[in-house]
Amino acid sequence: MAEGRDDFIIAIRSAFLNKSTKQKFSLLTLVFFSIFIIVLSNFNFKAISLTKSVIKEIVYRSSFIVSIPENFIKSSYLNINEYTNFYKEFKITKEELDQLKSENISTKIIKSENEELKSLIDGYTVTSNKILAKVIVDHESPFLRSIIINKGSKERIKIGTNIYDRSYLVGRVIEVNYTSSRVLLLTDLNSNIPVSITPGNVQAIVIGNGDKRGEIKYIKNDLINKIDDKGIAYTSGTGSIFKSGIPVGTIDLKDENEKILINFFSDFSQLKYVFAEINDFVPTTLKIEENDAAKISPNTEQIKLDLISDELQILEESNTKFLEENKELNTLTNELNRQIEALKAENNFQKKVIQKHNLDQEELEFLRLNLIYSSRCQSKKLFSTGFKVGTPEYKECIMRKGKISD
Amino acid sequence: MIRFQKKNLLYKIYTWLPILFLFISVFNEFDLNYLNIDYFSFNFPFILIFYFALKAYQRFDYFLVFLAGLFNDTVVGLPLGISSLSYILICIFATYLRNITISPNLIKDWFYFLFIISLINSINFSVLFLFFSYELDITLFIVNNFFTFLFYIVFSIFFKRYLKSLDD
Predict the structure, then answer these.
(1) Sequence-distant (≥ 6) Cβ neighbours of residue A26 within 8 angstroms
(2) A115 is a domain residue
(3) Of the residues A25, A116, A335, B137, which has the fewest C-beta atoms closer than 10 A?
């Protein structure tokens, strides 16, 4: 018994303390090192943060270099897929673009009005400047969803900076280094987004499900029925974590577990470039005085007029386009009418041929039966029971196979 | 069969392959996640570290394993030191198993590996959840644990061949 315990202790001691010739440190030392680093990284000393930042910069760049071959294979595969669907997507995109152009004009008008009103209420104007950032590391950890971008405090990125893919929300910055930052994606379990759901204007919180979608939580039970399938969720701006009015995703009510899920507009596995929004608060010199208002109003009126003239131009362009399309459609209709007439004539001719064919068939049948039953139907001199040849009664008799009717 | 002249540069690189693979896997998060199979993931560094700490500890520098852990934490976004601690704990358990084993058996090693990774994943989950307030899905941990356990046997075949080619 004591021997067994000794063996156990020897094995344990050997595992922890002994180091072979090639090892620089014993395992116990490394365990202490690890624990020391875990504890130390929780303190916000300047020296520690600086060291951490340097390590992270180096590791992110190295990770980017190491990932080049894998990323090349992935992107080649995606490129091939894109080329195969290129033409179909081009047509759809063209149509969408036309529609969006006209919608953009009205959005600009609303935006300028909104900014004007906000500056009156808050006393400062938020000038947002979106900068393009490259995704340098996007390895999906099984447990955490985040990406690394190549912009950091050097470009005035702060913790909490909103990150976009086109105009869709992707996440927010949770860690900033000098030339790189970590972005927590909306799909992460630790991500909470206050949203408004339209139609119904229902307020809720979306939490990442750790996979590809988000789940709606913290919603009043009586409001659940107000939510429609395919309803749109956009940020509500509550808590000032995210700006208000940013599109997030569409509602999906078809979950087996009766959860209300959100399909995000952006595909987070395909992010190559993103936009980081840098906000600056510029104090407004605008005072609500009649004279100043008079000075400002012509300028804003001019902007609105310009926008409306742009809208008019677009409408004219689309009108001309519709007229041309209309002409083309008229010609096509005429051509089709002509084809219909030709087909009708052909149809009549074919009907006649069929009718004639039917008559011939009947005649042939009569001649065949005549050969067999003519003796029964012909009139005889002694007993006048039959009919005279050539009369309709004679024909009827032959067709009835020699039966003379009463 | 590949044969090297010893002290050749290529031979040296070949002997460093496990460490190289370990660093590539932590930099690149090699866990076949891009296959997009729901919940599927496995921890390749765990398999590699356990196998080489058990079978070829003379060629395996624990300090580099410790560094790989730090890099992994940085890439994944975990608090610094968590993965290093996990990797070093695997080394300790593997060393203990090596010390108490007289006749090695792959199946016994396999189940011992299951016990170790379950313990270490539990420690990781608890530390992240209790001390760092991370929201984590326990299902993902369990599935990751299961697949890491399954893949051990597959990778051990390749690693065995590699070690054999080194000895030849």
Answers:
(1) A16, A17, A18, A19
(2) no
(3) A335
Say yes or no for a CB contact (<8 Å) between B74 and A146. Answer: no
Q: What is the CATH number of the domain that holds A142?
A: 2.40.10.340
Task: Please choose, from the candidates A353, A354, A346, A386, the residue with its C-alpha nearest in 3D space to the C-alpha of residue A370.
Answer: A386
Domain end (from A241, A263, A286): A286
- Is the ipTM beyond the 0.85 threshold? no
Q: Could you identify the residue written with the tokens 């004591």?
A: A2
Same domain, yes or no: A180 and A45: no
**A156 with A61, same domain?**
no
Q: Looking at the structure, do residues A145 and A60 belong to the same domain, yes or no?
A: no
Cross-chain Cβ contact A59/B144 below 8 Å: no
pLDDT per position as a tens digit, A67-86: 788 778 877 887 887 787 77
Residue range A250-275: mean pLDDT, rounded = 81
Smallest Cβ distance to A143: which of B62, B92, B136?
Answer: B136
Tokens of A374: 């003519």
| Domain end marker among A256, A286, A316 | A286
Q: Could you read off the pLDDT tens digit of each residue along chain B, which spans 168 residues?
A: 455 555 677 788 888 888 988 988 888 766 555 555 667 788 889 999 999 998 887 778 888 999 999 888 888 888 888 999 999 999 999 988 888 888 888 899 999 999 999 999 999 999 888 888 888 888 888 988 999 999 999 999 999 998 888 877
Residue A191: band (very low, low, confident or very high) from pLDDT cuts 50, 70, 90: confident
Going by C-alpha positions, the residue among A163, A231, A234, A160 that lies closest to residue A200 is A231
Q: Which of A33, A55, A66 sits opposite B74 (nearest CB)?
A: A55
- Residue A149's domain comprises 124-286
Contact (CB, 8 A) for A261 and A252:
yes
Give per-residue pLDDT as tens, A96-153: 887 787 677 667 767 777 777 776 666 655 566 788 888 888 776 767 788 889 888 8
Separation between Cα atoms, residue A116 and residue A195, nearest integer Å: 25
The answer to whether A227 and A221 are in contact (CB under 8 A) is no
Residues of B whose CB is below 8 A from A78: none
Distance between CA atoms of residues A205 and A171, nearest Å: 14
- Residues A254 and A178 both lie in one domain: yes
Ordered by start, the domain boundaries in chain B are: 9-29+42-167
For chain A, how many structural domains are there in total? 2
- Calculate the CA A106 to chain-centre distance: 23
For residue A44, tell me if it sits in a domain: yes
Task: Identify whether B45 is preceded by a cis peptide bond (ω within 30 of 0).
Answer: no
The alpha-carbon gap from B141 to the nearest alpha carbon of chain A, in Å, equals: 8
Choose from A21, A30, A74, A144 for mutation: most chain B CBs within 10 A.
Answer: A30
Give the whole-angstrom CA distance, residue B97 versus residue B89.
Answer: 12
**B23 burial level (CB within 10 Å; 0-12, 13-18, 19+):** buried
A204: phi then psi, degrees, rounded to nearest 5? -155, 175
Distance between CA atoms of residues A146 and A259, nearest Å:
24
